[in-house]
Amino acid sequence: MTTIQAALSGILLGGLYALMAAGVSVTWGVLRIINLAHFGMILLGAYLTFELATAWRVNPLVTLVVSVPAMFVLGGALQWAFDYLRVSELNSLLITFGLLIVVVQSVSNVWSADFQRMAAEVNPYATESVRVGRFVFPVPTLLAFAIALLVILGAHLVLRRTFIGRALRAYAEDRPIAAAFGIDHRRIGVLLAAVTGATAAVAGMLFSLANALTPATAFEWFGTVFAVVILGGIGHLVGTLAAGVLVGLLSSVVSVVLSPATAPFVLFSAIVLALILRPQGLFTVGATR
Amino acid sequence: MLEIRQLDAFYGDAQALWGVTMDVHDGETVAVLGTNGAGKSTLVNAVAGLHAKRSGRISVGGRDVAALPAHKVCEYGVAVVPEGRRVFPGMSVYDNLCLGAYRRTARAEYRKGLDRVHDIFPRLRQRTGQLAGSLSGGEQQMLAIGRALMAKPTLLLLDEPSLGLAPVMTDEVFEAIEAVNAQGVSVLLVEQDVDRALEAASRGYLLAEGRVAGAGTSAELRASDTVQRSVLGI
């Protein structure tokens, strides 16, 4: 019984992992930028939601009106700078790690390093849950899963069906030829990074609904989210979603059946295995990116 | 349509073209002949903007494009069928074709463009959902040409379209090139297969070691000793 409950909760939790991972995965796959600052943007998004909800009594969902445009601009501006400075894939890892540390420190300075949680009266979702039979699902987790699903599937459709989506995929596959067909790398790069930043704001808001915030959380996301990125296949949105759900499921079930301390061990062992057996990602077909 | 004056261009850091001057008039097909390493691909890439390092004058329809990046050159109606086809292997045939119509003036009429390409290459219609990487070499070449046509070009640059194709496929590809030219598109055709190139073109240039070593009508070039010696290595 508890195992099934843990499995279902894990699947729901996986949606948020997938949303966090989607941005990292797509910028890596298309722009060849491994953007660790993405975690900083998720953190900023979470604290913006916390601040606006606490100080201005704004509904946490409505705080997106501020945090999404803010992270959209920040994400785009960062990519513009990376492009201007011709940052390579490996250097992007170093630079964005530095940026992440700067963000985490700044957040500590502004909001302190203590755990902080939105008060119950400003976060109407925190204490509510939905009961289905004998299973209980907290509303923040359900919301996170539903919104993550919508964002990822929406982005997937845009990549598949629109001119700008095809341009991004073509750019990922062959940059010079994409340019020869009119694709301006700077414009689509900045646009993609800006949209990615916006998803970070959404992920941050969703995280803050259910969790207490502390700046160091950004580093905790690292392992799990990178696991999702690698398992899903770099640049693959649907794979990322599936991998997020799988990782959530696995760590949640192992926590209950064995112990919470064993969960990372099992998770990363599974990743090592997956990398040996299917280095291109679990859910990718053939050699496509 | 295309005027190249005193073009110097580089392949990496090494200079590959020296003072090249040539013209393609409106509606013409012009062949560029030469051996491997004569600078033919560098010429195509220099016009398309795929080589950053180039100097001289390249004007397309009266506008100088020599300093422009590839995505701007594309806006002036230049489409390229690159050496080795370079289709996007992980994208479907349909998506490859639609990508060709990315530039603003082509995008609005991409459905018309699809019909036009499918008329020329019916085989692409049958393959529409298939990944481009899974096509045969000949089909990929058709796709590469189709993709370029989707851009509604006024000038089409073709780099070695017969490379690696079976003779039957080559026939089909050259028929298509002539059909495209008949619709008024100017064509610059870089090709090692001298006979086929001169058959499709009305005029041609001979490149040797990065310089123009000869020019003339197809008949003149066919009869020329220099061409025979230089290209066939006799």
From TrEMBL, chain A:
It holds the Pfam family BPD_transp_2. Keywords: Amino-acid transport, Cell membrane, Membrane, Transmembrane, Transmembrane helix, Transport. It is found in: Cell membrane. The keyword Transport applies. CDD domains: TM_PBP1_LivH_like. It is a multi-pass membrane protein. Belongs to the binding-protein-dependent transport system permease family. LivHM subfamily. This is Branched-chain amino acid ABC transporter permease. The lineage of its organism: Bacteria, Bacillati, Actinomycetota, Actinomycetes, Micromonosporales.
Automatic annotation (TrEMBL), chain B:
Keywords: Amino-acid transport, ATP-binding, Nucleotide-binding, Transport. The keyword ATP-binding applies. PROSITE patterns: ABC_TRANSPORTER_1, ABC_TRANSPORTER_2. InterPro entries: AAA+_ATPase, ABC_transporter-like_ATP-bd, ABC_transporter-like_CS, BCAA_Transport_ATP-bd_LivF, P-loop_NTPase. The keyword Nucleotide-binding applies. Pfam families: ABC_tran. Residues 2-234 form the ABC transporter domain. GO terms for molecular function: ATP binding. It comes from the Bacteria. Belongs to the ABC transporter superfamily. This is ABC transporter ATP-binding protein. It comes from Phytohabitans maris. The lineage of its organism: Bacteria, Bacillati, Actinomycetota, Actinomycetes, Micromonosporales.
